[in-house]
Amino acid sequence: MAVLAVYGVFVHWRGAHSPAVLDWNTRPVEVRQAQWRIWDWSDLPFLRGLNR
């Protein structure tokens, strides 16, 4: 249970404090125009900026 709590805090912290996470919605292509990006596990929104 503690592992899930730490994971949840990490994901929410990244979403609240990282501008790169918000960029995921529009770069490289807006999600509304390329909905396949939602299912692309190689570019997770909350990890954007850590691996690029």
The radius of gyration over CA amounts to 12 Å
Strand content: under 5%
What characteristic shape results from the CA principal axes?
elongated
Helix content: 40-55%
The residue ranges in which pLDDT falls below 50 over 5 or more consecutive positions are: none
Mean pLDDT: 88
Q: What string gives the helices and strands in order?
A: HH
Task: Tally the structural domains.
Answer: 1
Number of helices: 2
What is the tally of beta strands?
0
Biggest β-sheet description:
none
Secondary structure class reads mainly alpha
Distance between the termini: 30 Å
What topology does this entry show?
Elements lengths: L1 H16 L1 H5 L29
Description:
- This protein is mostly helical.
- The protein has one domain.
- It is built from two helices and no strands.
- The protein has helices spanning about 1-15, 20-25.
- It starts with a helix and ends in a 29-residue tail after the last helix.
- The mean pLDDT is about 90.
Short description:
This protein is mainly alpha-helical. It has helices at residues 2-17, 19-23.
Features:
52 residues; mainly alpha
